Amino acid sequence: MGEKISMTPKSPVEGSLAPAGRKQEARKTGAFSKLAGLSMLAPVILFVVIAIVGPQLMPYDPLVVNLMDRVKPPLSELANGDRAWFGTDQVGKDVLAQVLQGARISLLVGASTIAAAGLIGIVVGVISGFYGGFIDALLMRIADIQLAFPSILLAILIAAVLGPSVLNVIITLSITRWVIFARVARSSTLVAKERDFVLAARAIGASNGWLLVRHIIPFTIAPFIVLATLEMGLAIIAEASLSFLGLGTPPEHPSWGLTIANGRDYLSNAWWISTVPGLAISLLVLSLGLLGDQLRDKLDPRSAKR
Question: 10 Å Cβ neighbour count for 153?
Fold first, then answer.
């Protein structure tokens, strides 16, 4: 005779093991996700702290020229007994001081660009998606015309007309980047218009202003945060590109792109002049991109389900 198979149900203790295991696994997954989010946020916070307090703590002036200490490699001792941790450039200016000052300029330009372009884009996108019709067609055709031009070429054209300065760089990049925010805000508005809470508010007689302030605009905040994190990295790269070409920040405001441009003729014998700010740009932009990816997973329930 074959062995009998027991048909008795599992005990409550045995039945509770699987849900407990799943809960423990979910807890571990959530803890890992939080740890990954913090690991992406830490470099961004570090750069912000460096930009705020770094130039005050640094004993060197990024604009002081000292021909006696020109093209010193990293960790070299200067003539006055100080140490150049990241070396000096072709005219004796400290590279570390320029990198710290460049962090302030790059983050200032990136944050200001996102604030200005985001505000313009949200206003245009929400109005276009909410009212539709002729207004929507007109605003989106203007956006399509601008999207037909490569953003970097348009930025070069505008920057060449306005001239090099920090304010002009912010204006230039804001003009070239508002379209992205407008498109995302319009899409979010079109989705929000069909939601039950908006239809219910409209059914009880809520005005358009009430719907926009209380329901439509808050619905666009989450996509804006994710897009702003990603676009800030692109704005920093665009500012460095303009400064590299001599159309961005002036010499009295040394940015990472300007420092890289100053060292491009010395790559064979003074690689640190361009390499150090290049690594700083890469680390900051990569951290912002990964942070934006983490925020998308947190704020988008559809991606969380996947």
Answer: 10
